[in-house]
Amino acid sequence: xxxxxxxxxxxxxxxxxxxxxxxxxxxxxxxxxxxxxxxxxxxxxxxxxxxxxxxxxxxxxxxxxxxxxxxxxxxxxxxxxxxxxxxxxxxxxxxxxxxxxxxxxxxxxxxxxxxxxxxxxxxxxxxxxxxxxxxxxxxxxxxxxxxxxxxxxxxxxxxxxxxxxxxxxxxxxxxxxxxxxxxxxxxxxxxxxxxxxxxxxxxxxxxxxxxxxxxxxxxxxxxxxxxxxxxxxxxxxxxxxxxxxxxxxxxxxxxxxxxxxxxxxxxxxxxxxxxxxxxxxxxxxxxxxxxxxxxxxxxxxxxxxxxxxxxxxxxxxxxxxxxxxxxxxxxxxxxxxxxxxxxxxxxxxxxxxx
Length: 354
Known about the structure:
By secondary structure, the chain is of the alpha/beta class.
């Protein structure tokens, strides 16, 4: 069976990761692309050979029969098209964060359950060999009961967050920047702009994915410095199990410098260290025992095409879904509560409903 795929959004990440992955997968066929920008739309058709091109996602869903959908628009535009696809029973890969408004996230989960459609969020780090192995080790009790999580993510974001993506087009970010993000994608307050929605969403999702912990309460501070959106975030998190965590993220790494994503997970019988950027991971047990996992390099460090490959498998009735909508919604709730905590200068309880 060939999976017919449509892609909504033909910008930076779509042309760097999603569209090339569809083109490279013999089980997939790109049948349609959607973008309001005709230039981006036409370039995507020329590069990746889509049979149809639209400027409106809902019109595309009415006109073309598809088996799977990729939504790679700015976060503020995720909800409507994702909801429409799920209501049609179409599996969806939606970029992170899943949504900005938690109420919209609950609606998407309800639609996915009601119509039996898979919902996956574009958290690429979940697909690395280290993340897959460590998640299983933690679930199997290798380090006992998880008691503390510490995650730092520092990235090259300052110019994106100030609405100047074109300054990164000459390189220094480690990704193809043939298409640059729109100026407002990362810099618009309240619409998915800022370091929390742009980057902390990745590291928070990775921590929850690896540990299975559920956030219950958060106290946070943020700093914008010269920007209109947060550039640095620091979260103290209490989990429903009684574990605690410290999650921080900063967009201050300079172009050409190496980014940082380091995760330490402490349990009652050992701990785990993961350096996702350097591709190193280790498991530390009683008596000084240390198991170093094989180092990662190349595409294994950040497997750009893995979320699309996973979407294709889900459309074929295979699995697993390594970034399900339920996890995406936990992150939405955590970030929403953290930003509220920073505004109101108090700890915020995180409720799963309401």
